Amino acid sequence: MMAGEKGTKEKREERPPRLTVEILDKRIILTSTGFGLVAALAWNDAIKLLL
Questions:
Q1: Quick one: residue 42, left, alpha or beta (phi over 0 = left, psi -120 to 50 = alpha)?
Q2: Residue 43 and residue 36: Cα distance in Å, rounded?
Q3: Any idea what DSSP says for residue 51?
Q4: In 1-51, which residue ranges form alpha helices assigned H by DSSP?
Q5: Distance (Å, whole) CA 2 – CA 14
Q6: pTM passes above 0.90
Q7: In tens digits, what is the pLDDT along the chain, a chain of 51 residues?
């Protein structure tokens, strides 16, 4: 392996592709929203039981 190829490969490993970062960001947002919805529904049921 040539020195130039190794340097290029190391740079690629340092920073993930932009698309991967965007997909990860969207998954985090959707997961957080899903947990928030489940928590809201649980509180709704708990309040209904108290009334």
A1: alpha
A2: 11
A3: -
A4: 3-14, 18-50
A5: 19
A6: no
A7: 555 555 555 555 677 788 899 999 999 999 999 999 999 999 999 999 998
